[in-house]
Specification:
184 residues; mainly alpha; two-stranded antiparallel sheet
Length: 184
């Protein structure tokens, strides 16, 4: 009897990241529902079900479904689980890059033609949606480059490397091929 190859570490790490996404979604969706219902119960509210709130809730539910399908496919060694996991990891790379405050600062400077604030640049406030956030700045342009590289490139490169290992790694390939051979 042939032994099926064990689950490679890239699949374990991917499953852990996907499970964290599922847990966050399971927390975030009830919070969204509570916020929507409590807003509708306030006196004098005319239009409580706005298109934006409904789309946010629908997007969160779609993301949860995507993550559940991904974890199921990875656990059952299905190829769709592999490709959904790769798509999720690449989506996480995109989010990690675009949510970086340093990326937003540099992107605004490049696209609007406004120069970067001269160092030392202490802190600034920015709003993401309705939430005010405080970002701390940089003491020199070299510091901006290093902080930007750490803030942007490190998480993106780790997730990108993981996605490449799931997509093209020999151990992951054997892991999913064992499922295909066992079904023949």
């Amino acid at each position: 009897m042939e032994r099926r190859p064990s689950k490679p570490s890239s699949i374990w790490i991917t499953q852990f990241i996907v499970m964290m996404g599922i847990l966050l979604s399971l927390i975030f969706i009830p919070v969204q529902l509570f916020g929507l219902v409590s807003h509708c119960l306030m006196p004098g509210v005319q239009n409580c079900f706005t298109v934006g709130k409904i789309l946010d809730l629908a997007g969160s539910c779609i993301l949860l479904g995507w993550l559940l399908l991904t974890i199921w496919g990875l656990q059952k060694r299905k190829l769709y689980g592999k490709w959904l996991a790769i798509a999720f990891l690449l989506f996480a790379v995109l989010v990690a890059i675009t949510r970086s405050s340093y990326f937003q600062l540099i992107y605004r400077a490049l696209t609007s033609g406004i120069s970067l604030p001269a160092p030392p640049y202490d802190c600034w406030k920015g709003s993401v949606g309705e939430v005010e956030q405080r970002y701390c700045g940089y003491s020199s342009y070299v510091d901006l480059g290093l902080r930007g590289a750490l803030d942007i490139l490190f998480p993106a490169s780790v997730l990108g490397f993981l996605a490449s290992r799931v997509a093209f790694g020999h151990a992951a390939k054997r892991f999913f091929e064992a499922r295909i051979e066992s079904t023949k």
